[in-house]
UniProtKB/TrEMBL annotation:
This is GntR family transcriptional regulator. InterPro entries: GntR_C, TF_FadR/GntR_C, Tscrpt_reg_HTH_GntR, WH-like_DNA-bd_sf, WH_DNA-bd_sf. It comes from Streptomyces violaceorubidus. It holds the Pfam family FCD. PANTHER family: GLUCONATE OPERON TRANSCRIPTIONAL REPRESSOR, TRANSCRIPTIONAL REGULATOR, GNTR FAMILY. Residues 208-231 are annotated as: Disordered. Residues 2-69 form the HTH gntR-type domain. Keywords: DNA-binding, Transcription, Transcription regulation.
């Protein structure tokens, strides 16, 4: 059975984000095909996609390598997110469905409960689901794809510290959801802008100016999940 290239792409991207493939390291088709248990064809397609996304670069005499973004490029990501997330919230206020609202409200309730309990790691996952759901509620596939790519790259380049005030952080999520529920696009945009600007201070670069990583990386091999892209 031919493994879809998007599944291979997701697996390689995840391993770049988590540091399995370090910045600047070579990505040879043969080794990647062996690692993920696939042929070289989907690997080749995946590398082209990842190059277009900015995770991979092609170098003379070296071939495909993991990109080495600069601090300026990393800063640009946060600035771009500050522009796009509020746009998504504004559109969600006009285009969301009741199903989207139900999920958003459920995430806010759970997030507020976990914030009071102080379970930090789960809060980060819940926050990611909240922002992803809001992007989907905007009913704009191109915008949702851009925001997803942004989140991947921010996760790759930054360590995100737990918010100093998790209860207030989730109160902001609740206020955004209320604005979306009322169909108030301008208020949703305003609240999301403030939320993103406040959360920016919690981001710390994973690499120093000289290019060294600050976090330990994993090395375990694994096959691609052929049932679909990994989340």
């Amino acid at each position: 059975m031919r493994i879809p290239a998007h599944s291979v792409c997701t697996a390689i991207r995840d391993d770049i984000v988590t540091g399995v493939h370090g910045r600047g390291s070579r990505l040879t088709e043969e080794l990647l095909a062996r690692r993920y248990g696939v042929s070289r064809v989907p690997v080749r397609e995946a590398l082209r996609t990842l190059e277009a996304e900015g995770f991979v670069v092609t170098r003379r005499h070296a071939g495909a390598c993991v990109a080495e973004p600069t601090e300026r490029e990393a800063a640009d990501l946060l600035e771009t997110r500050t522009l796009l997330e509020p746009l998504g919230a504004s559109r969600a206020a006009r285009r969301r469905t009741e199903a989207h609202l139900k999920v958003l409200r459920g995430l806010v309730r759970l997030g507020q409960e976990r914030a009071r309990q102080g379970t930090g790691e789960e809060l980060r996952s819940l926050g990611g689901w909240f922002h992803e759901t809001l992007a989907r509620a905007a009913d704009s596939p191109s915008l949702a794809a851009l925001l997803t790519q942004l989140r991947h790259k921010i996760d790759w380049m930054y360590v995100v510290e737990a918010p100093a005030g998790p209860v207030e952080y989730w109160a902001e999520h609740g206020a955004i959801t209320d604005a979306v529920a009322r169909g108030d696009g301008e208020r949703a945009r305003e609240l999301m802008t403030l939320h993103i600007e406040r959360s920016a201070s919690a981001h710390r670069l994973r690499f120093a100016s000289g290019g060294g990583r600050t976090e330990r990386v994993r090395n375990a091999q694994h096959p691609v999940n052929t049932a679909g892209p990994r989340r």
